[in-house]
């Protein structure tokens, strides 16, 4: 199974990442260059940083104060201008009135304007002919530095600009503006670079036809959703689609479109009255930023489908089961065409992100997206939803969903305390209803025409909208909710409310304008007016506060599940298996293990995600396995000889520094335990491997050690393998006191070659005459090795069998004790850190917490240790020694005494005694059990009982939440039918005389909403606005003198 190790590797986002999330732009590393080969592998965040904190190969960004004005607009806004290569982003000071995200590859020309003294202003000409003036209000050196960085970033985007022209025809807004419908529009579109080319190519239509779009095959290349073929939900005439499209067309003429769209106050007005159906898909990808991923990865989606055609996995099987339950009331999903599109998107994403694979409710979300978007558009928007907007919502542990449900409950407790207290008193869980809302973005809870308007707001304003809408639903139904006594009543009440959400909120009111207000309009007003205090910062703060609790609960539940799923546990108890799991999981999450090295550079299913120790088998099952580097960390925690422990004392403190050891013996153990030959170990492999060595007796330990060095498994060790085995013994004994262990290994080598020559198969050794020493002296281990090296026989022939190896080991009392007891005792199962890891390691917040986070760092701890060591050395009280692996003490004086004691009991058996002792030991019982450190004091027992109770409570809580999640997923799959979603008449070209009235009615609705919501920010006034207006008429610097504007250009493309 897959372990939730990503919870340990979670880190708070940097300032640059938060800024990019706010502007909905991807990281630089997620945007490959056009020259890079296409790849389906997800980009990992493992690039090195230079000294300035910038990743290698990336452009440097910068933030500066600025004033923005646009030619043709009176409003002027002061705010922050951010260079986030390859994007130029602006946000007004109030963070809502004006906002823009312009890719640098859409900027054709940048000039510095000839302005007043002390004013540094730049003029930007975009691809669509829009002119933007940026007045940099910071100090002159900062403004010049910003201009230099902007120039360098613009030059780096030349290859991307070449890809822009063939990409733009895929966007509906290009066709919408290709042929103007009136003379006013003509004055604005004469200079639109791409639109004039489309018009010249003959792809435009007459004015009113343009408002509805080309439509149909062969009438345009823009990306189409299923709604183009099967119709969009709702009645287009009642939703006034024509008038909305006309308003958006007018907005695009002045404020830009798609890549160069500026979000002024009218944008928010048009958004909250609903997007036109044909424009919705494009605006979704522009607002979410998925359009930048689709532009930079034009071949990825097709490659995913072609490379994985015909493949089956657990995810694809689950997808097939849910296809027919994906918005079945919409007629596109009653046909093979609609189901085929849905299948392709879900399958492609399951192979791109196999760690996530597929989760119920994804089919509902993607089915909704495909109504308005093409397959590629929906695929990239799905990636943005899963990675950035709704992180962790659809992961196997669903930690994002559980976390946000806790956040929502916390907000209900804060904003609606009466409802929260009542639900608590009657034991009703808010999440039984709210969890399906969040999972499906309300698509499965209310009529589609209203749910998609909520999706509009989520993609435009962020995930806070989900919380604001949820709180508004509870507040509007507050009186009825106080009468609820169980979960069933709560769910039925919510279903009834959503079934009437299109009805009048005040049907009996005398004023017809009040009667025209629907329940949905009231919901939006309550959500955005009364709960506007719920901001992105609120959600981030609550998530940070509750993340540790959720993470600990998920880890504890995963531990119990992993232990239960083991098929064989050997002689270990349940508690011991739990300790092994803790060490295994700690090693997986340890930074000492480093990044996993992928053996094959070709993109494999297991390579396509950010957790390199998670692998996907041929059936699509996800499993956590450890590689060799992680195994060394794990074994260093278990085996005393597999780590280097240095004890340091000085005048102030005594500390023990631990480091992972590295030797061929550890590699041999890793590959011996990898019985399936996958190059990695599962938890089951580790348990069985430990069980064999820790439960082994004398003979079993000797056999295990012999097989560890028998590479070809033929029952014989070669001469080289005998030497390697002796080196393994020296590695284990390297830190033991005295020279008794070295003498024992030396004697082992002597006896091994002596007995090996006598028992080796014929042809593996030379004659006895060749083994005589030159001076007749007694042969030593060194001379035996030299003589062995000098023989003519090759060293890779069978030489020493298991029986002879036992004889050699039993000839030495120290080696016998080692294999009889010390080897198994060196594997110690000790408890790891606290159960509540995340809560124990949660970083403190606030001013004091921030100071502690700055001071208490690993680097500062190392500096303090070095300083203490320096003082200790100056005072003559500094000492270091290696902690022995097999001895029972770590005190240097005691080690000296123990060395003399061991030396006194040194006893190497003579050849005459070997046969008798061997027979005696063979007749005895040599089985023994592994020794595990345990404590049986009364206090520890009481503590264990308390911990067990707490674990049971946590498991019960998490199990309840998991059952709730599964129930919510199942509820998402059963969506009620809403009559209002029925596809009505298309918004035909008749009734043209009513067009202006419909437009006025929409704008009146907008104005009423704004009057109830809040007023617009009209931007700067007075002298500041006068300066900005003058800059719109200013000429580039040097233009008068030279008569050529190119002299003043920062960049002219």
TrEMBL record:
<dbReference type="InterPro" id="IPR050302">
    <property type="entry name" value="Rab_GAP_TBC_domain"/>
</dbReference>
<feature type="region of interest" description="Disordered">
    <location>
        <begin position="204"/>
        <end position="224"/>
    </location>
</feature>
<feature type="region of interest" description="Disordered">
    <location>
        <begin position="912"/>
        <end position="941"/>
    </location>
</feature>
<dbReference type="GO" id="GO:0031267">
    <property type="term" value="F:small GTPase binding"/>
</dbReference>
<protein>
    <submittedName>
        <fullName>GTPase-activating protein (MAC1-dependent regulator) (MIC1 protein), putative</fullName>
    </submittedName>
</protein>
<dbReference type="InterPro" id="IPR000195">
    <property type="entry name" value="Rab-GAP-TBC_dom"/>
</dbReference>
<dbReference type="GO" id="GO:0005509">
    <property type="term" value="F:calcium ion binding"/>
</dbReference>
<dbReference type="InterPro" id="IPR035969">
    <property type="entry name" value="Rab-GAP_TBC_sf"/>
</dbReference>
<feature type="compositionally biased region" description="Basic and acidic residues">
    <location>
        <begin position="769"/>
        <end position="789"/>
    </location>
</feature>
<feature type="domain" description="Rab-GAP TBC">
    <location>
        <begin position="274"/>
        <end position="462"/>
    </location>
</feature>
<keyword id="KW-0106">Calcium</keyword>
<dbReference type="InterPro" id="IPR011992">
    <property type="entry name" value="EF-hand-dom_pair"/>
</dbReference>
<dbReference type="InterPro" id="IPR002048">
    <property type="entry name" value="EF_hand_dom"/>
</dbReference>
<dbReference type="GO" id="GO:0005096">
    <property type="term" value="F:GTPase activator activity"/>
</dbReference>
<dbReference type="InterPro" id="IPR018247">
    <property type="entry name" value="EF_Hand_1_Ca_BS"/>
</dbReference>
<feature type="compositionally biased region" description="Polar residues">
    <location>
        <begin position="912"/>
        <end position="933"/>
    </location>
</feature>
<feature type="region of interest" description="Disordered">
    <location>
        <begin position="1034"/>
        <end position="1053"/>
    </location>
</feature>
<feature type="domain" description="EF-hand">
    <location>
        <begin position="697"/>
        <end position="732"/>
    </location>
</feature>
<dbReference type="Pfam" id="PF00566">
    <property type="entry name" value="RabGAP-TBC"/>
</dbReference>
<feature type="region of interest" description="Disordered">
    <location>
        <begin position="760"/>
        <end position="793"/>
    </location>
</feature>
